[in-house]
């Protein structure tokens, strides 16, 4: 039985496994090969890695993990997780995995609107995060889609970057067409508008069913409720990355750096939990 099962091979899961490995805890890291930022060509706003491809970040992280004998990487898919005895059993395409604790780092899935061209441009010319994708549009026209309360704030955030911020209401965009230097935004009742990049906020959902299978408490955002140490509502189950956040926040902030930091916190919390469990089982020590 492993000390920890980490499900998810993005920045949160990779960092959690590294933190556990450095403390010589046995870890099974399961990576399905599916990532929320799988269409993104360059990651930004990450000190010393600004502009590096997410695929390259994952490769470098795996090289780091290879130095730790107690960390085992499994490239397979977890189908289900259940509590059994003093631990958990994960059923995977490669067979069952038993562990004393679980770290969920499976992330979220963006549910894009059914607009022609949107899926092909998502994570490239069309994105959600101005911190990750805004600077590269400097001095050019930027498009912003939506009618929610976030729009005035996003407009002010993007205004110092672009030469102009053009707003498109919900339902106004009928097609997104890639051009040589941006996208052409087609509209239902007006001429198309050329922009260098387009920002919108799609709805999202859990990318895996494990929070539901384990009966974890959820937040109104659809994310797993955790405390500041990454502990979920179920003992021995921790979560890291954008699938979870503390209840003081309205939603997670999608960021490679924050996901990695959350993985460190969750991994450290597992180490602390296992150490405390060992202390409790040993009983009070006798005074010399």
**Gyration radius from CA atoms, angstroms:** 21 Å
| Count of beta strands | 18
Strand content: 25-35%
CATH homology superfamily of the largest domain: FAD/NAD(P)-binding domain
Q: Which word captures the global form?
A: elongated
Mean pLDDT rating: 95
Structural class, from helix and strand content?
A: alpha/beta
Give the H and E element order: EHEHEEEEEHEHEHEEEEEEHEEEH
Give helix % range. Answer: 25-40%
CATH hierarchy class name of the largest domain: Alpha Beta
Protein name: NAD(P)/FAD-dependent oxidoreductase
InterPro entries: FAD/NAD-bd_sf (IPR036188), FAD/NAD-binding_dom (IPR023753), Ferredoxin-NADP_redctase_2 (IPR050097)
Domain FAD/NAD(P)-binding: 2-136
Catalytic activity: [thioredoxin]-dithiol + NADP(+) = [thioredoxin]-disulfide + NADPH + H(+)
Please tell me about this protein's structure.
With 288 residues, the protein is an alpha/beta fold. The chain folds into 2 domains: 2-109 and 203-282, FAD/NAD(P)-binding domain (3-Layer(bba) Sandwich); 113-199, FAD/NAD(P)-binding domain (3-Layer(bba) Sandwich), CATH 3.50.50.60. Helix content is 25%, strand content 29%. It is built from 7 helices and 18 strands. Strands 1, 2, 3, 4, 5, 6 and 17 form a 7-stranded mixed beta sheet that branches. The protein has a 4-stranded parallel beta sheet with strand order 8-14-9-10, with helices on one face. A hairpin with a 2-residue loop joins strand 4 (78-84) and strand 5 (87-92). Helix 1 (11-22) packs parallel to helix 2 and helix 1 (11-22) packs parallel to helix 7 (256-282). The longest helix has 27 residues, at 256-282. It is elongated and about 75 Å long. The model has no long low-confidence stretch (mean pLDDT 95).
